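To the team - zinc ion complex, inputs and output below.
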Amino acid sequence: MSAASGVIIAAHGRHYVAQAGSQRLHCVTRGKKSDVAVGDTVTLKMTSSDQAVIEGIEERRTLLYRSDQYKSKLLAANVTRLLIVVATEPAFSDDLISRALVAAESAGVQAHIILNKIDVTASLEKTRGRLALYAGLGYPVHEVSARTAPEEAVAKLMPVLQGQSSIFIGQSGMGKSSLINLLVPDADIAVREISAALDTGKHTTTFTRLYAIDDATSVIDSPGFQEFGLHQLTEGMLERAFPEFAPCLGHCRFYNCHHISEPDCAVLAGVKEGRIAPMRHALYAQLRHESMQTIGY
Ligand code: GDP
Ligand code: ZN
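Output:
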């Protein structure tokens, strides 16, 4: 059978769905390999009219992934934007936001934050206050209400998505599904079709999927997750993934300073003088600790 090129639009274990022109193909990898991500452009070898084997992966522009001590998990390939969905309620986790921001920085992906449920006025000011830290670091924050002002939400977010490949992540309950359904009108139909192609039965929300909005614009919805390990990042990658550290780097007494407890450390001075939030430095230290468990300096 013939060869084709396609884009991976869904992944579930080692099963994938590729969009090749107007065709949706159920794909598998050769052997036990599972290094394919949603968003990858792949070369395919057809094995039947609607099935194919993934032969190769084209060079990626970006790759987002997380990892723990034992294994890594690809989130998405070729994305240009990471949209973190948070809400006035339930409360969001600063740890998860900062980890996602670090992942984006180290992958060269622009991160934005969407604050949903601004109609819940009781907790709005408090939430804005918490997000001011990230806005201050230069990450745009977009305020919307998917439920009470859906048209305004679309008008505000469409320009952010246009011409980009965006991945939405968020803890469950923030309204990520509500927003995706507003931005991708036929998302529910697409999910049912992809689910049928993957044969995942009713587990329709547990896989990552890509929706093409137009030729240049796509949106990836990823299932919620509680853990965001970044064991793969080395110390050098970590210090560069905190934009507020940038003015300090190269100004420590020791050229190989770890910014943990060294004398005359410019980063620690930044924390002391209030230019770097203690919470962010604590996360840097934690991530460095985690990565040492794996890499072993
Ligand atoms: P997900 O788990 O992040 O995908 O969140 P859902 O889209 O399923 O929404 C979680 C809950 O929040 C649902 O009960 C939604 O109706 C509700 N919700 C979503 N958007 C808004 C909003 O803008 N305002 C309010 N008050 N509730 C919302
Ligand atoms: Zn230092």
